[in-house]
């Protein structure tokens, strides 16, 4: 039963984080660099009201997710999220299982929907003093499979048509760069 716990909370954590409305974060356009920018703080502020979040998984586990912390991984061009999780089931578990999950994702642009989407989401790390260490590798692998299946291509931000038109010209997002405090999306003429 412990093998099902961490993949479940990884999936629930990502689905909660990705439940942020696609237009929740205001973007800033820089005319000099032809980039839209969404700051880490804007993303953090947009997801904060969703926590703590109580969820039920498989009608068996009560999961509480709390304290999301967004970070940027510029060297890997990815964003990460650290979230606290507590899993309870009085029938199957003697006491609640506490864990800290670190998840990350790259980004890609989908021209058909004008959306910035998660790409290659994965569970980077599972920390729990409530589970034996020998489960860590197995649980991370199962969590990665769940993250890939359910979160790949999830739309995090959708551009409005007017954001991609200026002075009679049509533009489209190009290179996506994760910086220390923001995600920047290059805008280039079609």
What does this structure look like?
- The longest helix has 16 residues, at 2-17.
- Mean pLDDT is 76; it is low at 1-25.
- The protein contains three helices and eleven strands; from the N terminus they run αββαβββββαββββ.
- The radius of gyration is 18 Å and the shape is elongated.
- The chain is an alpha+beta fold and 190 residues long.
- Residues 1-24 form the signal peptide.
Which key phrases capture this entry?
46% strand; Bactericidal permeability-increasing protein, domain 1; alpha+beta; 11 strands; 21% helix; 190 residues; 5-stranded antiparallel sheet
Summarize the structure.
This is DUF1439 domain-containing protein. The chain has helices at residues 2-17, 40-47, 136-151; strands at 28-30, 35-39, 53-57, 61-73, 78-88, 97-110, 115-127, 155-158, 165-166, 169-178, 182-189.
Classify the helix fraction into a percent range: 10-25%
Q: Mind telling me the C-alpha Rg?
A: 18 Å
CATH structural architecture: Super Roll
Counting helices, strands and paired strands, the structural category is alpha+beta
CATH topology: Bactericidal permeability-increasing protein, domain 1
In terms of topology, how is this protein built?
Layout: H1 2-17, E1 28-30, E2 35-39, H2 40-47, E3 53-57, E4 61-73, E5 78-88, E6 97-110, E7 115-127, H3 136-151, E8 155-158, E9 165-166, E10 169-178, E11 182-189
Antiparallel strand pairs: 1-2, 2-11, 3-4, 4-5, 5-6, 6-7, 7-8, 9-10, 10-11
Helix pairs in contact: 1-3
């Amino acid at each position: 039963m412990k093998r099902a716990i961490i993949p479940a909370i990884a999936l629930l954590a990502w689905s909660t984080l990705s439940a942020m409305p696609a237009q929740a974060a205001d973007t800033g356009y820089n005319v000099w660099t032809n980039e839209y920018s969404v700051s880490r703080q804007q993303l953090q502020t947009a997801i904060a009201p969703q926590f703590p979040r109580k969820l039920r998984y498989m009608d068996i586990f009560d999961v509480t997710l709390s304290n999301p912390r967004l970070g940027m991984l510029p060297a890997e061009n990815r964003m990460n999220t650290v979230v606290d999780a507590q899993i309870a089931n009085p029938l199957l578990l003697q006491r609640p299982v506490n864990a800290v999950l670190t998840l990350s994702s790259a980004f890609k642009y989908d021209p058909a929907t004008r959306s910035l989407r998660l790409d290659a989401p994965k569970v980077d790390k599972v920390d729990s003093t409530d589970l034996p260490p020998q489960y860590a590798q197995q649980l991370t692998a199962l969590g990665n499979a769940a993250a890939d299946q359910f979160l790949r291509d999830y739309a995090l931000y959708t551009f409005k048509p007017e954001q991609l038109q200026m002075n009679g010209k049509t533009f489209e997002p190009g290179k996506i760069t994760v910086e220390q405090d923001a995600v920047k999306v290059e805008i280039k003429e079609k």
